[in-house]
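1st attempt posting a full record on here, be nice pls
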Amino acid sequence: MKKLINNPEYVVEDMIKGMVAAHPEYIKKLDQGNIIVRKDSPIEGKVALVSGGGSGHEPAHGGYVGLGMLNAAVAGAVFTSPTPDQVYEAIKAVDGGKGILLIVKNYSGDVMNFDMAKEMAEMDGIKVESVVVNDDVAVENSTYTAGRRGIAGTVFVHKIAGAKAEEGAMLSEVKRVAEKVITNVRSMGMALTPCTVPAAGKPNFTLDEDEIEIGMGIHGEPGTHREKIRTADEIAQQLVNKILDDMPLDKNNEVAVMINGLAGTPLMELYIINKKVSEILKEREIKVYKTFVGEYMTSLEMSGCSVTILKLDSETKKLLDAQADTPGFKIY
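the predicted structure (as tokens):
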């Protein structure tokens, strides 16, 4: 294993200190736990958004703390849920009196621990709601989940719910918008190579040189199947077909598209995938309103990508376009 780390036990702490040192105008670290919050926290009279999960998916989630997105991000160990105490401390740190929305990816540990933190905060009189993101159409159940996994579509939930909160909306309205995004977003990914968790020191699965995994999860969970590597166009077609089979779109529907790299894939290749995705949608007379290409929810150094499609309406279009200024996501 070759990695630019010091001690495998301190990779998350070291990363967060480095992130805060790079972006002090946006974020600060709480004294307790690996928790990043907006520098101006708490913000009185504003619903606060709290998310998080295992580390190794950067820029998710700490990179999305800032104006128009998250108020706090809680970092667990690599590919491991944060503890209830961590989430509870984050809730307390950003509570501005108008309530908290927890945005949770559908992994069993995350759901359980965020639910426990919610109960702890409610005992303190803090109003807390939660939503669970389950955008991955690849498999219904997996190693880490009951039901579908939450993957890169979560970033759209952060963005659109965050914009609603920035408007001064009530907690019920912010939750409603988050749930609308969850209902209308679908993703599917694939892997070219595995990744290595620092504490393990070896790849978390193996693929032959000419082999890829379709439907791979962001922690290396098995997908739908393995097959010989094919052209980028064929892979993109396969991913988009599965998404559109699950979320049929009509002619003239408008969508946002995210082509997400898993950290080991060059932008050149992501743009090649996007070329075919845009062609498929154009052929079906589906209008692409906005496209995001880059690394939004990664898997350490894994090579591969995911495709996310979000069906838009007038409300979600407006919120998607609203200003966001965070270390990992900016719209001016």
